[in-house]
Amino acid sequence: MTETKITARNVDVFYGQKQAIDNVSIDIDDGMVTAFIGPSGCGKSTFLRSLNRMNDTIADARVTGEIRLDGEDVYAASMDPVALRARVGMVFQKPNPFPKSIFENIAYGPRIHGLVQNKTDLDEVVEKSLVKAGLWEEVKDRLHDAGTALSGGQQQRLCIARAIAVSPEVILMDEPCSALDPIATARIEELIDELKDNFAIVIVTHSMQQAARVSQRTAFFHLGNLVEYGETSQVFTAPRNEKTKDYITGRYG
Ligand SMILES: Nc1ncnc2c1ncn2[C@@H]1O[C@H](COP(=O)(O)OP(=O)(O)OP(=O)(O)O)[C@@H](O)[C@H]1O
Fold first, then answer.
1. Which of 88, 101, 205, 207 is 20 to 30 A from 41 in CA distance terms?
2. Domains and CATH numbers, the chain
């Protein structure tokens, strides 16, 4: 049975006086991939970042409305943003490994969140995370090499492994393949498909083909509004809204 992981109600996001997200309400389900699509500047990344309070780091950004993770108010004073971002992890456009070894990239999170008691536990978490991210076989003999020495696609899988290492419930991905070649992209897409059974995944993508390939739900944003949200197959084959139809048929973008 489908379970809702995140509920957003009447969410507005402002940068100073400028409104970037206008009254968005959406339920994001567990155990599947939700794609956010829409023309450049429509607010996809802004809304994505509001789900784990990454907008808190932008000085003049302001979020109103309600966002709940498993019923808990994400913006409550009692919610620790650092703990929240471990529960709702994030993978960015450009792979951004720490300037540390492959091992340390993964070990850092579990250590600071107190998820491991000793070196054996830590080794196990590092291995499991790299296995889940499909990177273990490629790096197991060079765990102490710099993470930045990996290829772009490997670095992105390292960043996914780093997110997984702290046992998140949700993984937010902001155009995770935009800096990758088609082969590395295909590898990440396969990985997203494998991971979806254990996490709720939300992906912002400019590629409608990618949204169609990897997601089960698609949300179409336009000028800060959520125009249409539904099963990916429905949104792509029988869009209910004219604007969605125009966008997916390439009439504007
Ligand atoms: N840090 C910021 N300060 C001020 N305005 C911003 C900031 N980030 C985004 N915006 C504005 O908010 C609006 C939504 O931007 P956002 O990046 O969320 O859109 P997007 O749909 O993800 O775009 P793209 O597909 O080009 O990445 C845009 O008008 C943008 O210029």
1. 88
2. 4-97+172-248 (3.40.50.300)
- Which residues have CB under 8 Å from 48's CB, separation 6+? 36, 172, 174, 202, 204
Instruction: Kindly report the three-state secondary structure assignment for every residue of 17-29.
Output: CEEEEEEEEEEEE
Alpha helices in 64-118 (DSSP H): 81-87, 102-112
State the virtual CA torsion across 248, 174, 24, 215 in degrees, nearest 10.
50
Ligand 1 pocket, residue 58 CB under 6 Å: yes
* Residue keyed to tokens 């539904």: 230
Give 42 Cα–ligand 1 centroid separation in angstroms: 7
The model carries a pTM of 0.95
This complex has an ipTM of 0.96
- Tokens coding 111: 């250590």
Among 85, 83, 91, which Cα is nearest to 53's?
85
pLDDT 10s digits, 26-43: 999 999 999 999 999 999
